[in-house]
Amino acid sequence: MREKIVDVKNLKTSFYTHLGEVQAVRGVSFDVKKGEVLGIVGESGSGKSVTAMSVMKLVSYPGNIKDGEIIFKGEDLVKKKDKEMLSIRGDKISMIFQDPMTSLNPVYTIGNQIMEAITRHQGLDKKAARKKAIEMLRLVGIPSPEDRIDNYPHEFSGGMRQRAMIGIALSCEPDLLIADEPTTALDVTIQAQIMELLKELKDKIDTSIILITHDLGVVADTCDKIMVMYGGLAMERGTAQEIFYEPKHPYTMGLLKSIPRMDLNETGRLVPIPGTPPDLISPPEGCPFSARCPYSMKICKIDMPEYTQFNEGREAACWLLHEDAPEVEVDTGVKRGEVNDK
Amino acid sequence: MTNNKEALLEVKGLKKYFPQRHGFLGRDTRYVKAVDGLDFKIYRGETFGLVGESGCGKSTTGRTIIRLYDITEGQVIIDGVDISELSQKELIPYRKKMQMIFQDPYASLNSRMTVSDIIGEALDIHGLATGDARRDRINYLLNRVGLTTEHASRYPHEFSGGQRQRIGIARALAVDPEFIICDEPISALDVSIQAQVVNMLDDLQSELGLTYMFIAHDLSMVKHISDRIAVMYLGRIVEIGEADRLYDKPEHPYTQALLSAVPIPDPDVTRALAKNRVILEGDVPSPLNPPSGCRFRTRCLYSKPVCSTQIPELEDLGDGHQVACHFTGKLVRNDR
Questions:
Q1: pTM confidence score
Q2: Residue A129 domain-assigned?
Q3: Are B280 and A189 inside 8 Å of each other by CB?
Q4: Which domains occur in chain B, in start order?
Q5: Which residues are paired to A210 by β-bridges?
Q6: What is the value of ipTM here, to two decimals?
Q7: Nearest CA to B215 among B335, B96, B38, B92?
Q8: Which residues of A touch B195 (CB under 8 A)?
């Protein structure tokens, strides 16, 4: 078995606002092994981005990691001081964000920003760093990188900016790359380019990836493992195949039912999930999904269910999985298309 | 659905250029050719999907049809009347026929107006209802879109994104329109909420006999909701056809690439398809200076010399399926 790069245990992150404590992440556990891609799926407000920011320890005031452990290569990041994190961030763990225009600094050239990471963490001099930066730009598919290195971010298109971001993030060959909605702001043909590039580079430098997205298509395409989040909690974890073909949690099933499938000639109506996501200032008692769940029982509104373990890395939190639960006929929403691998 | 092929809307040679001044004191003017010669018809009772990537001119098309923008050239014919030259005043009766739902439910509702004023404004402008009748109409509309009468006195910030989009729909429905342009109505919403709104649009269409133009970049959702679909690239339509036909057998190289780029939410299927995925190189060229001839030729895997000299026109393949390509059905891939 491959080694665990990061092992997160019972992570809790809150934001202390004037309206009260917003419990964005309320106890999440997961791990990522070497070379693996973990997808974190969820709607806005489910806590997926805050989970990622917590792993980077980039949660800033008024937010705080309240509890839990983030074991990265044997060391607990939660206990690390800010100063110690500086040598980890950008070198061993790096991140790419949704909007490459706001995450690149508009007053520095692209080259400057790549070289910053290289000189800081690899101790190369300016000349060598510039050479490496050009190499990095070539690797991420920027045409004529020798000229482009002196461009400013506004001279790049959206897709090229995201490529440059990936170049910065991977310049120190990190053990873990966190990609927070890396293609949400991009068009679908550019999305295909970027995802292809990420897959290629992952194989080349054997980095692990945490991919955060709300697009189930992207997840199905790239992830080995998936964690489905809702209301600050993980509802279900498993391999991509398990989540898409044998979902155990009604929320996952609801998601699968509510999206149309382009490859199937479906004629029926979509099945939406009724209602809206919960408010995390005063999260509901019990299971956060109970108010929208078609199979909700009395107990669901009182207590959060324990995780039912199926096998290593496969678990779900639902009262229906309890041994005393009544037999309920469940529509899993699984649709399997024809596999055409000519 | 479209057995009675009566065109509600016809667009002929529609062009919309945005001037961009530059040079000394802005003496030189260049034009962003956002929409550059569109021809299509929308039949009564159908949903016409318009897809394309950002910057291809799909939103400009919608806004030009409804005359939020002045038309540079071409005709927009609704119910047999050409509205392209009408003054703002003369347009009012046609505005009652055509309404629009916008993408961003946060920006498209006036935050200083109550919900009842937002919806009622349209009733006032067209003089449709006053007093009790106005209130009844607003309450009816709120119920129609799944909100309650209590919501009438609230302000937009008190609602979630999905609810705001419902308010936007109620506003569009207020004047009993025949035709609604939906400009990315669900792309700002969460996945689980999108289906709620799409189903509601579906119900409203069958109950009120509405015709939709549905502008979006989410190709799966467009296929689900549309009867016919037009694919745009850099201000021109490259392909129009029945939704199923277009998705099963796309003819234009751009449509093929666009559809193949969409990942399918089914791991085994999408990974098998990924082996043959067509990944386009580069970005969309600038509409300030689009390529000569076929605008897609710079990224096309099949382009030939003729593509840079002649603009391909939309041609009917016989079954109502139209494609704008010099080599429809006989594409030969270039070696790279």
A1: 0.90
A2: yes
A3: yes
A4: 7-323 (3.40.50.300)
A5: A38, A178
A6: 0.87
A7: B38
A8: 258-259, 270-273
